[in-house]
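Dear H.,

Thanks for agreeing to be a second pair of eyes. The structure we're designing against is below in token form, covering all 626 positions.
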């Protein structure tokens, strides 16, 4: 009699075949690594039992000397060689450094790609290299716990990270020797950890959850619908350059003014003030006032004073929450639960304002520092194959629309923001001129109607298009966004089959609040953008009509039109050309295009008759009917 091997749900029937996967929360202030053991997600601690790893690396002339707590001890004594908060620099350009809020205590130099490099005793280092050291330390911790090599990892990123920032995170993982199973949005990871712990999430009733994630360097808000193991992201929002560091900096600026220090501070003075500000913020979460000893001076800071300093920044996060609610067509009264993520949500002021906005007390029972890593660990365990893929369905979204440039400098959106990923969408375009054999594809990201108001991601060319009359070619452009939120674009001419494609790896040059600004601008300028788009569309139509009609007149007007007909057509065309250059009223331009169209109808009919006569010349009736 043969034995039938069985196992617990979600567990491998052959334990020796279990693969080792982890979830990594690469944070601005602290990082963590977690895994799933016996069906339960848990954070892996170091030898001293500490779950958190400060995201700090110290360098000497020989290279990285230490990572984490030991490195943080060098912050004041060796500020230029002690690198922290580098997550804020991932995917950024050298020109963006000053906009990240205050002067960072580093010396920067650009490389050829525009990515900022930090000057240290070991040499110029990119944020990717520094992040790789932090990831390597977490991997070492995991492999020590497993006593085995790692098979893969899910790494979390802020929901509002753009393509460049996601790619930079993936590059750091590759440099650390990590097989990335997926880049997972931090709020989504938190929802996984939260939702699977709730019995009601497994019932038939749907629940709508707001995940408010205020970390050290970034803020995210995500609205998710949880139903029977399906996690659907309805909308995301936030600010990729707003976090606990900025709250600390607001307090540090107040301390600088109280101490009557100048605007130009040394790296050591900056670190001293920032550490004092962070300490004060944490203490004021427990007590109503705190006395700080800084540079032989005692300064009293009360909780109410701190609120006045940070309320403006907290209110910025609440405005992003309101935008996300509008995007999801949801009212705050429809939110069933609010989940807090990120160490900065420990502040009572943050919890108070979030509760006031959503009208309910936020959930705080899960450790806000650990919840993201725990959710990532559960997703990693599923993706590596230790659980059935049917156990969980995760539907994430992209934060900004992706489009293409069309004639007139207009942006045609192909994939709209908050579209569920992975996704592939195609749209057909055509040529503008007769005999056109190539087409330039300009990939854009943003919400505005004009190319100049959106961010350029990539350019490539489709060559080898067969020469045809303008408008005859059919070029299918396909945008594909994978589960990590990374984009690839292809263009194919349908008749000939010629094709070109590109994997978009954006340059590191995005401004600190550009994503948030793009959305704000799209709301503020919606009416204006509609008017501009309508005008540009009519201008493109006018250009096409002027070019086509002028070419036809040069070829056939002498044979087909008398003097009065030619003059009438020339006058209408001249008026259209004049309006094209001077008018900013799209309706006026559209009316003149219609006038030219009607004026040229007889000429078009005569050209058609002449073309038919030429085609039939010399043919018998029977031949013509064949």
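And this is the sequence the design step returned. I haven't edited it by hand at all.
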């Amino acid at each position: 009699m043969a034995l039938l091997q069985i196992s617990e749900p979600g567990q491998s029937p052959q334990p020796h075949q279990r693969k080792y996967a982890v979830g990594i929360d690469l944070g601005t202030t602290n990082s963590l690594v977690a895994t799933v053991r016996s069906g339960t997600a848990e954070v892996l601690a170091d030898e001293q039992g500490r779950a958190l790893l400060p995201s700090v690396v110290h360098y000497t002339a020989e290279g990285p000397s230490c990572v984490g707590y030991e490195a943080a001890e060098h912050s004041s004594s060796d500020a230029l060689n002690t690198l922290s908060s580098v997550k804020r620099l991932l995917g950024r350009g050298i020109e963006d450094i000053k906009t990240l809020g205050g002067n960072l205590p580093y010396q920067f130099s650009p490389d050829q790609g525009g990515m900022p490099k930090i000057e240290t005793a070991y040499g110029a280092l990119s944020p990717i290299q520094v992040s790789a050291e932090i990831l390597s330390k977490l991997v070492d911790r995991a492999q020590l716990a497993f006593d085995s090599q790692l098979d893969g990892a899910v790494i979390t990123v802020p929901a509002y990270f753009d393509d460049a920032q996601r790619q930079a995170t993936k590059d750091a993982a590759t440099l650390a020797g990590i097989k990335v199973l997926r880049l997972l949005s931090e709020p989504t990871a938190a929802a996984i950890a939260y939702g699977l712990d709730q019995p009601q999430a497994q019932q038939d009733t749907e629940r709508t959850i707001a995940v408010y994630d205020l970390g050290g360097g970034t803020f995210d808000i995500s609205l998710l619908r949880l139903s029977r193991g399906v996690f659907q992201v309805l909308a995301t929002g936030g600010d990729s350059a707003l976090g606990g560091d900025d709250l600390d900096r607001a307090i540090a600026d107040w301390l600088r003014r109280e101490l009557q220090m100048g605007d130009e501070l040394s790296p050591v003075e900056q670190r001293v003030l920032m550490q004092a500000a962070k300490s004060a913020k944490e203490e004021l979460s427990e007590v109503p006032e705190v006395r700080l000893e800084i540079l032989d001076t005692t300064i009293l800071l009360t909780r109410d004073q701190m609120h006045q300093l940070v309320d403006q920044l907290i209110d910025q996060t609440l405005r992003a929450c309101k935008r996300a609610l509008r995007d999801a067509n949801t009212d705050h009264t429809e939110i069933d639960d609010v989940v807090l993520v990120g160490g900065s949500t420990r502040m009572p002021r943050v919890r108070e304002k979030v509760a006031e906005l959503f009208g309910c007390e936020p959930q705080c029972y899960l450790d806000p520092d650990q919840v993201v890593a725990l959710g990532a660990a559960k997703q990693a365990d599923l993706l590596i194959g230790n659980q059935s893929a049917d156990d969980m369905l995760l539907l994430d979204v992209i934060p900004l629309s992706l489009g293409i440039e069309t004639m007139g400098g207009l942006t045609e959106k192909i994939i709209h923001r908050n579209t569920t990923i992975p996704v592939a969408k195609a749209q057909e375009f055509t040529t503008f001129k007769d005999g056109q054999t190539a087409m330039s594809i300009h990939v854009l990201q943003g919400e505005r109607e004009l190319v100049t108001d959106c961010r350029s991601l990539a350019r490539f060319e489709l060559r080898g298009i067969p020469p045809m009359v303008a408008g005859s070619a059919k070029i299918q452009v396909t945008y594909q966004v994978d589960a990590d939120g990374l984009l690839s674009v292809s263009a194919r001419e349908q008749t000939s089959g010629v094709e070109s494609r590109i994997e978009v790896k954006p340059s590191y040059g995005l401004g600190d609040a550009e994503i948030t600004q793009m959305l704000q601008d799209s709301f503020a300028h919606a009416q204006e953008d509609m008017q501009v788009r309508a005008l540009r569309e009519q201008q493109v139509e006018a250009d096409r009509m002027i070019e086509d009609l002028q070419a036809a007149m040069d070829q056939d007007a002498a044979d087909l039109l008398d003097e009065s007909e030619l003059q009438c057509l020339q006058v209408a065309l001249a008026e259209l050309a004049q309006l094209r250059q001077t008018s900013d009223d799209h309706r006026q331009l559209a009316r003149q295009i219609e006038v030219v169209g009607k004026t040229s109808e007889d000429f078009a009919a005569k050209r058609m008759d002449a073309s038919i006569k030429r085609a039939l010349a010399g043919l018998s009736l029977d031949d013509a009917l064949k």
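Two observations from my side: The mean pLDDT is 80. The first strand starts at residue 21 and ends at 25.

Warmly,
E.
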